[in-house]
Amino acid sequence: MTGKAKPKKHTAKELAAKLDAATTNRGGGKAGLADRTGKEKGGHAKLECPLCKVTAPDIKSMQIHHDARHPKIPFDDTKLNNLHSTAPAAAAETSKPKPGVRGSLKK
Protein backbone atom coordinates (compact mmCIF):
# COMPACT_ATOMS: atom_id res chain seq x y z
CA MET A 1 0.00 0.00 0.00
CA THR A 2 1.35 3.42 -0.94
CA GLY A 3 1.08 6.66 0.97
CA LYS A 4 -1.03 9.64 0.06
CA ALA A 5 -0.06 11.80 -2.93
CA LYS A 6 2.77 9.49 -3.96
CA PRO A 7 2.71 8.61 -7.63
CA LYS A 8 3.06 4.92 -8.37
CA LYS A 9 4.83 5.48 -11.69
CA HIS A 10 7.29 7.99 -13.09
CA THR A 11 5.87 11.01 -14.85
CA ALA A 12 6.73 11.92 -18.44
CA LYS A 13 8.48 15.06 -17.23
CA GLU A 14 10.68 13.07 -14.84
CA LEU A 15 11.56 10.50 -17.52
CA ALA A 16 12.45 13.27 -19.99
CA ALA A 17 14.66 14.96 -17.40
CA LYS A 18 16.46 11.68 -16.66
CA LEU A 19 17.02 11.05 -20.37
CA ASP A 20 18.35 14.58 -20.87
CA ALA A 21 20.72 14.27 -17.90
CA ALA A 22 22.02 10.92 -19.12
CA THR A 23 22.62 11.89 -22.76
CA THR A 24 23.76 15.53 -22.61
CA ASN A 25 27.45 16.33 -22.11
CA ARG A 26 27.66 18.72 -19.16
CA GLY A 27 31.43 19.11 -19.48
CA GLY A 28 32.48 16.89 -16.60
CA GLY A 29 34.86 13.95 -16.50
CA LYS A 30 37.08 12.83 -19.36
CA ALA A 31 34.50 13.74 -21.99
CA GLY A 32 34.69 17.45 -21.13
CA LEU A 33 38.40 17.62 -20.33
CA ALA A 34 39.44 18.89 -23.76
CA ASP A 35 36.64 21.42 -23.71
CA ARG A 36 37.57 22.73 -20.26
CA THR A 37 41.30 23.00 -20.88
CA GLY A 38 41.05 24.37 -24.41
CA LYS A 39 43.99 22.29 -25.66
CA GLU A 40 42.15 21.37 -28.83
CA LYS A 41 40.75 24.07 -31.07
CA GLY A 42 37.13 24.68 -30.38
CA GLY A 43 37.34 24.32 -26.61
CA HIS A 44 35.70 26.98 -24.51
CA ALA A 45 38.93 27.99 -22.80
CA LYS A 46 40.76 30.33 -25.17
CA LEU A 47 43.05 32.38 -22.93
CA GLU A 48 45.50 31.24 -20.25
CA CYS A 49 46.81 33.35 -17.39
CA PRO A 50 50.63 33.58 -17.60
CA LEU A 51 50.92 33.74 -13.81
CA CYS A 52 48.82 30.82 -12.57
CA LYS A 53 47.83 28.97 -15.81
CA VAL A 54 44.07 29.32 -15.20
CA THR A 55 42.04 29.32 -18.42
CA ALA A 56 39.19 31.61 -19.43
CA PRO A 57 36.96 31.84 -22.52
CA ASP A 58 37.35 35.56 -23.22
CA ILE A 59 39.31 38.70 -22.32
CA LYS A 60 36.61 40.04 -19.98
CA SER A 61 36.60 36.86 -17.86
CA MET A 62 40.38 36.87 -17.77
CA GLN A 63 40.40 40.49 -16.59
CA ILE A 64 37.94 39.62 -13.81
CA HIS A 65 40.18 36.69 -12.81
CA HIS A 66 43.28 38.90 -12.87
CA ASP A 67 41.70 41.63 -10.75
CA ALA A 68 40.54 39.08 -8.18
CA ARG A 69 43.62 36.83 -8.00
CA HIS A 70 46.53 39.15 -8.89
CA PRO A 71 45.53 42.62 -7.69
CA LYS A 72 49.08 43.91 -7.18
CA ILE A 73 50.19 43.18 -10.76
CA PRO A 74 48.80 45.42 -13.53
CA PHE A 75 46.71 43.64 -16.17
CA ASP A 76 48.41 43.35 -19.57
CA ASP A 77 46.42 41.52 -22.23
CA THR A 78 49.46 41.11 -24.51
CA LYS A 79 51.03 38.63 -22.06
CA LEU A 80 48.04 36.25 -22.14
CA ASN A 81 48.56 32.86 -23.79
CA ASN A 82 46.11 32.24 -26.62
CA LEU A 83 45.40 28.49 -26.60
CA HIS A 84 43.64 28.63 -29.98
CA SER A 85 46.59 30.15 -31.86
CA THR A 86 48.40 27.94 -34.35
CA ALA A 87 51.88 29.28 -33.51
CA PRO A 88 54.14 26.57 -32.04
CA ALA A 89 55.09 26.89 -28.41
CA ALA A 90 58.68 27.82 -27.55
CA ALA A 91 59.06 24.84 -25.23
CA ALA A 92 58.15 22.39 -27.99
CA GLU A 93 60.94 23.66 -30.25
CA THR A 94 63.79 22.35 -28.12
CA SER A 95 65.75 19.61 -29.87
CA LYS A 96 67.56 18.37 -26.78
CA PRO A 97 66.84 14.67 -26.14
CA LYS A 98 65.01 13.83 -22.95
CA PRO A 99 66.52 11.37 -20.46
CA GLY A 100 65.20 7.84 -20.15
CA VAL A 101 63.79 6.02 -17.17
CA ARG A 102 66.86 6.14 -14.95
CA GLY A 103 68.49 9.26 -16.33
CA SER A 104 70.32 7.58 -19.21
CA LEU A 105 69.67 8.61 -22.77
CA LYS A 106 68.06 5.94 -24.92
CA LYS A 107 69.71 5.40 -28.27
Feature tags:
single chain, 107 residues, mainly alpha, 3-stranded antiparallel sheet, 3 helices, 3 strands, elongated
Molecular structure report:
- This protein has 107 residues and is mostly helical.
- 26% of the residues lie in helices and 6% in strands.
- The protein has 3 helices and 3 strands; from the N terminus they run ααββαβ.
- It is elongated, with a radius of gyration of 24 Å.
Give the arrangement of secondary structure elements:
Layout: H1 12-23, H2 33-37, E1 47-48, E2 55-56, H3 59-69, E3 81-82
Antiparallel strand pairs: 1-2, 1-3
Report strand %.
5-15%
What's the helix-strand series? HHEEHE
Shape, per Cα inertia axes? elongated
Which stretches are poorly predicted, pLDDT < 50 over at least 5 residues? none
**Structural class by sheet pairing and helices:** mainly alpha
Tally of contiguous helical segments: 3
Distance separating the two termini: 75 Å
Within the largest sheet, what's the order of strands?
2-1-3
* Helix percent band: 25-40%
Question: How many E strands?
Answer: 3
Sheet with the most strands, sense and barrel status: 3 strands, antiparallel
Q: What Rg do the Cα atoms give?
A: 24 Å
Give the overall average pLDDT.
78
Summarize the structure.
It contains three helices and three strands.
